[in-house]
């Protein structure tokens, strides 16, 4: 099972971390930008080529210290066809280095369209009798707010293709409470969604007690995370909001179970652009990313150990 493989890597590397590959061309090292523009002009292709080189170097550096990467598709789609190509090549390169890829695509639609999204990112299609995989991510993020006829299409491919999903439950953005914290019949909407996710998850539990149907739970809401950990006992949390969004190691301990498992914490800007942080500015961008990752790992593990949630 995919989730078992992710948990195994977390334990082996002592690193419940996923690195968000959310590149912005204007923030890349100057030499990468200059070379790309010299070769391809001031074009989307130049941006995509620089991003791909940037991502590959980060993957080469980080593949031995973190189990997974999470490219956010919007940062690639904004460059059109060239950006989508860079997204796909980034995912495949990470997989070739033994990393698990969480495609942060947040898809969700009516049944037939959800089926198309699921086949694009998780499953396969048949072309005149030949099977074909498009983006072939390991996990993707999905939006549950269109109901079961949306979600069931993705979960079918989770089962058939040994893939995974992380369902949006309580997101890290400041205005998430406008909808997710509304109360219906005595429960917050995020609690109701959590109950649905757990119902899907508990039918698919692997050796570590978790399924490949996970939930997105933001580091910026530790009180809600504590409630959600109680509701979703077999659901692994993908935890955004660490670092640049304000979350720290002390904020995320409630996302983990009593054994210190059940969550993987994302950092994007704080790692990939660490070379712009004065604490790491004396290092090149790959070394800065590595140092920031190791510091994040120590912060999380120290806080887990402090509350006796030592998983290693």
Task: Give short descriptive properties of this protein.
312 residues; alpha/beta; 8-stranded parallel β-barrel; two-stranded antiparallel ribbon; 13 helices; 12 strands; 16% strand; globular
Task: Explain this structure.
- The chain is of the alpha/beta class.
- Helices cover 46% and strands 16% of the residues.
- It is built from 13 helices and twelve strands.
- It has helices at 2-13, 30-40, 44-62, 74-77, 81-96, 111-121, 148-161, 177-180, 189-201, 222-231, 249-252, 269-272, 285-306; strands at residues 17-21, 68-71, 100-107, 125-127, 130-132, 139-142, 164-170, 183-184, 187-188, 213-217, 237-239, 263-267.
- The strands form three sheets. The protein has an eight-stranded parallel beta barrel with strand order 1-2-3-6-7-10-11-12, surrounded by seven helices.
- Helix 11 links the parallel strand 11 and strand 12.
- Helix 3 runs parallel beside helix 5 (81-96) and helix 6 (111-121) packs parallel to helix 7.
- The longest helix has 22 residues, at 285-306.
- The mean pLDDT is 96.
Strand and helix map with partners:
Layout lengths: L1 H12 L3 E5 L8 H11 L3 H19 L5 E4 L2 H4 L3 H16 L3 E8 L3 H11 L3 E3 L2 E3 L6 E4 L5 H14 L2 E7 L6 H4 L2 E2 L2 E2 H13 L11 E5 L4 H10 L5 E3 L9 H4 L10 E5 L1 H4 L12 H22 L6
Parallel strand pairs: 1-2, 1-12, 2-3, 3-6, 6-7, 7-10, 10-11, 11-12
Antiparallel strand pairs: 4-5, 8-9
Helix pairs in contact: 2-3, 3-5, 3-13, 6-7
Helix content: 40-55%
Q: How much is the average pLDDT?
A: 96
H/I helix tally: 13
Q: What structural category arises from helix and sheet content? A: alpha/beta
Element-level helix/strand string: HEHHEHHEHEEEHEHEEHEHEHEHH
Nearest-angstrom radius of gyration? 19 Å
What share of the residues does DSSP label as strand, in percent?
15-25%
Q: Specify the biggest β-sheet.
A: 8 strands, parallel, barrel
**Cα shape:** globular
Poorly predicted sequence stretches spanning 5 or more consecutive residues: none
Distance between the termini: 21 Å
Number of strands: 12
Strand order of the largest sheet: 1-2-3-6-7-10-11-12
């Amino acid at each position: 099972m995919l989730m078992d493989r992710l948990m195994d890597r977390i334990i082996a590397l002592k690193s419940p971390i996923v690195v968000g590959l959310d590149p912005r061309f204007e923030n890349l090292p100057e030499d990468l930008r200059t070379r790309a523009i010299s070769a391809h002009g001031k074009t989307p292709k130049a941006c995509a080529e620089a991003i791909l080189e940037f991502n590959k170097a980060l993957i080469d550096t980080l593949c031995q210290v973190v189990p997974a990467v999470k490219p956010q598709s919007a940062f690639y789609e904004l460059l059109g066809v060239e950006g989508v190509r860079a997204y796909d090549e980034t995912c495949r390169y990470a997989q070739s280095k033994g990393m698990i890829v969480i495609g942060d695509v947040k898809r969700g639609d009516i049944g037939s369209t959800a089926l198309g999204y699921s086949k694009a990112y998780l499953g396969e299609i048949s072309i005149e009798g030949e099977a074909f995989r498009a983006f072939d991510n390991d996990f993707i993020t999905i939006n549950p707010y269109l109901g079961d006829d949306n979600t069931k299409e993705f979960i079918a491919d989770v089962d058939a293709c040994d893939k995974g999903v992380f369902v949006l439950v309580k997101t890290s953005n400041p205005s998430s409470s406008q909808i997710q914290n509304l109360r219906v019949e005595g429960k917050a909407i995020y609690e109701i969604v959590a109950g649905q996710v757990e119902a899907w998850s508990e039918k698919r539990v692997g050796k570590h007690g978790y399924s490949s149907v996970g939930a997105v739970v933001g580091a910026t809401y530790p009180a809600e995370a504590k409630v959600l950990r109680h509701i979703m006992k077999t659901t692994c949390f993908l935890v955004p909001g660490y670092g640049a969004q304000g979350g720290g190691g002390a904020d995320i301990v409630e996302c983990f179970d009593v054994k210190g498992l059940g969550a993987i914490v994302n950092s994007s800007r704080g790692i990939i652009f660490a070379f712009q942080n004065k604490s790491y500015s004396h290092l090149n961008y790959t070394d800065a990313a590595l140092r920031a990752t190791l510091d994040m790992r120590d912060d999380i593990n120290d806080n887990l150990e402090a509350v006796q949630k030592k998983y290693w």
